[in-house]
Write a structure and sequence with these properties.
- There is one protein chain.
- The chain has 456 residues and is of the alpha/beta class.
- The chain has three domains: 132 residues, no CATH class; 88 residues, 3-Layer(aba) Sandwich (Rossmann fold); 195 residues, no CATH class.
- Helices cover 49% and strands 13% of the residues.
- Strand 1, helix 7 and strand 2 form a beta-alpha-beta unit.
- It is flat, with a radius of gyration of 28 Å.
- It starts with a helix and ends in a 6-residue tail after the last helix.
């Protein structure tokens, strides 16, 4: 409930911020005193304004802004808010650009700054209110803790470390010895608001008894669902046709942030292909004139969850490169199933130049448009190399879409000789994925391309 209230307040703040940024830019002080040109009336941007209101809280949610307690460190809060406002301002600028609406650049910038300051002020005021005596009395709720001795002790300790949660443990009972009458009496006598239930699979029958009793009393039950000790996966709750379901996931969760990534992939690939169309045609002509064979190299690569797809690249090798690959196997410089060779004799003269500046990879923008790849993600391996991966942990790199660039490519890929190090960087990307990480990798890719840190 708190999150919904906060999102509603933030939507109102973002709406007010855009209106305020527009009014400041359209004011006589700016247009007359400062000599800036007038801008279009507010009605022109009305539909963008309407879309901005519900989208802004969703972008903040994608940055983890709402996934926190009241007492989260101010630095963490500010950083998440800054990233959210930055993405919203950039998205607004792109939306206005593609809509061919001319608006002073000061409006999106001013909107982002104003929204950042007002949301931060709101958070400070709400934090002060929550810490006040009145706030604590309003948010304080009485809970009953049920489970075995060791489990309830651990949960009680965690709750005590988070006083801002508003949870106060009134009593603790051993689930093994609990009788239905004892539970009902406690609910009546102590005015219990909720029950925290920690039950291993061997106590499911007693847990069901507690849930049924609380159902009749109208008391909440919070089931601590840590039945299995996972090492990597995060656990979330979902609904499957009316049935509650636990989901164990070791990959980024399907979210608005993921949908934004897909939109950025499509728009980014389309924009790059439009801008680079003529240079790519020139490259294709050079390849055709300087060597015999097709312009493009096509190969089966492993995509999401290992599904094969056809990847497109500018051809940089002789036409029979795949047939003579086995003759060079002894010269492989990379451990594991991957084949890498610095001075590969199969590469053509123009191919070496194309690889140096990663120009041969640009046709993969078509794969991005088709949804087979992303702008950022682990590099796709040939299907035959994927089949030679024997360590099951290494296959987790297939759990996300492959990409044009990745953490490995901007972390000195030509210096990495072990496949394990390559996989480690891919898994580090998967475990820490965010739109902000994608943006940083894209920004680091640009100088890497111009510096000629190309593929082997």
């Amino acid at each position: 409930m708190r999150m919904q209230i906060s999102q509603l307040l933030d939507a109102c703040i973002f709406a007010a911020s855009f209106w305020l940024a527009y009014e400041i830019r359209a004011s006589d002080f700016v247009t007359i005193t400062l000599g800036q040109p007038p801008i279009a009336p507010f009605e022109v941007f009305f539909w963008h304004y309407l879309v901005l209101i519900p989208v802004s809280p969703l972008v903040l949610e994608s940055q983890g802004f709402y996934d926190r307690s009241w007492m989260t460190a101010r630095k963490t809060l500010t950083w998440a808010l800054f990233k959210g406002c930055l993405f919203i301002s950039l998205g607004l600028t792109l939306a206005l650009f593609f809509s061919r609406l001319l608006i002073a650049r000061g409006v999106p910038i001013g909107f982002g700054v104003i929204a950042f300051c007002l949301v931060l002020l709101k958070e400070e005021l709400m934090s002060l209110a929550a810490q006040s005596r009145f706030g604590q009395s309003q948010f304080r709720r009485h809970f009953l803790l049920l489970g075995t001795g060791s489990e309830t002790e651990r949960i009680r300790h965690e709750i005590q470390q988070r006083p801002e949660s508003g949870v106060e443990i009134i009593a603790e009972l051993d689930l093994n010895q609990l009788q239905p009458e004892e539970l009902v009496n406690l609910l009546h006598e102590r005015a219990i608001n909720g029950v925290i239930l920690s039950s291993r699979h061997s106590l499911f029958d007693r847990a069901e008894m507690v849930v049924h009793a609380c159902e009749l009393e109208g008391v909440e039950v919070w089931l601590v669902a840590d039945f299995f000790k996972t090492r990597i996966s995060t656990t979330t709750m979902d609904d499957f046709y009316g049935r509650p379901m636990l989901v164990f996931r070791s990959t980024p969760e399907v979210s608005w942030q993921g949908k934004i990534k897909e939109a950025i992939d499509f728009v980014g690939a389309l924009l790059l292909l439009s801008l680079l169309f003529i240079p790519l045609v020139v490259v294709a002509l050079f390849i055709k004139l300087t060597s015999s064979g097709p312009v493009f190299f096509k190969q089966q690569r492993s995509g999401l969850n290992g599904a094969p797809f056809t990847i497109y690249k500018f051809r940089t090798m002789v036409t029979n490169a795949e047939q003579i690959k086995h003759e060079l196997a002894a010269m492989n410089e990379m451990t594991g199933p991957v084949f890498k060779l610095t001075k590969d004799p199969r590469i053509t003269a123009i191919g070496r130049w194309l690889r140096k500046f990663s120009i041969d990879e640009f046709p993969q923008l078509f794969n991005v448009l088709r949804g087979e790849m992303s702008l950022v993600g682990p590099r796709p391996l040939p299907v035959d190399e994927t089949k030679r991966i024997h360590d099951m942990a290494h296959r987790r790199r297939l759990s996300v879409k492959p990409g044009l660039t990745c953490l490995w490519q901007v972390s000195g890929r030509n210096e990495i000789k072990k496949f394990e190090d390559w996989v480690r960087l891919d898994l580090e990307y998967i475990d820490n994925w965010s739109l902000w990480l994608d943006l940083k990798i894209l920004l680091r890719t640009i100088p890497a391309v111009f510096q000629g840190a190309g593929a082997k």
